[in-house]
Amino acid sequence: MYERTQHLSELIDRSPLGALQIRVLLLCFLIVLLDGFDTAAIGYIAPELIHSWNIERAQLAPAFGAGLFGMLLGSFCFGPLADRNGRKSVLLICVAIFGLGTLATALSPNIEVLSILRFVTGIGLGGVLPNCITLSSEYSPARRRMLLVTLSYSGFTLGLALGGAVAGALLPRVGWQGLLLIGGLAPLLLLPVLYLALPESVCFMANSPRHTATLRRIITRISGQSDWERVRLVGDSGEAGARSPLSALFSPGQLARTLLLWLTFFCCLFVFYLLTNWLPTVLRASGYDTGGAARISAMIPFGGVLGGIAMALLMDRIGALRILPWLCLIAACALALTGSQLHSAAGTLAIVFLAGFSLTGTLNNLSVVAATLYPTASRATGVAWALAAGRAGSIIGSLLGGWLFAQAGGLQQFFAWIAVPVLLAGLALGWMKRLGHSAAIPTSKAMEQD
Question: With contact defined as beta carbons under 8 Å apart, do 235 and 414 qualify?
């Protein structure tokens, strides 16, 4: 017979940040670091593929698109699976898929086989981010949730940025197959560490009677207290399994927030992937050499790492939805001004860094906001489907970049055009603030004020 009830989120919020939670955040950081590297791997090896297979640049389009479509499918599928079967087990499956997929891609004999394997790899990649974000969020105390989860998520943008440096050093020595072998072996070597050291979500275990003993051991480590036999441990929702995970996304109180969140992800990832894929080409057309174009383009992810962390510190104090709309406005202004700075290398570097700081910084923190909107039984689904909306934007952005570049009539107009979706994302976030945050995970006072 239980003597009292303890909400796990409240317990984590009032407990000091311990070694177990730091371990969860570090492991999630490593996973998304490898996720970022493997996501961008096709871009790093593209010139080598053109040379090795004697193909045209346009023939690589199916390989680029296949990976993005796979990530879209993975986001849709693995979020609901994680809400029903646990974050950890689904995360291990996703890591195995993208590790094995990347290894197999190294053996591709032609572009057709490579495209198929990139699709399979993308399925695994698409399931990693939402589950890492959800797991990190559920182990983080509200007073530092934005910062801690952003630090963990920043591994993805860091993987994108560092991948170029790693590829530049290794490609001349090991070739494109060797780079993919390294990218596939690393997550597979991490798998046994994750199996042994990464705990399951406490909120998920609270709704699963077979995890009761494990949950009590973990809570003992987090709280420093050991007498939990007569305490009923509950997550943030007492209705596990009562309805489909998808129903919470479209309930009367959440429908507008869900659609606005999807619109924000779509717009931001549309512009992010458009810049990632086409900014080097635009810079080369403006007279920059390959090295200069690469250095300037790297400011998009590098600026985002710094922007995400800096903004997370502010958001933990004054609230996410008080910061993010203005961050989108800064990104839109920076993008609109980029075309006027192309004559100056220093000016272009600075304005692109500001665009990365604000746009990618928004993306790094937006996922944390998504994790706070939904209860345990649908949290991974909510984050995954929001990311899936973003994946759709990334696909369209990658495909439309060349068309926009041709239709804009000039580089200043091109950058002015791509500032519009970011401005739209800022308006959507401002509307979300007016609706109220209605957080499912208890949040810091700053976020409650939103």
Answer: no
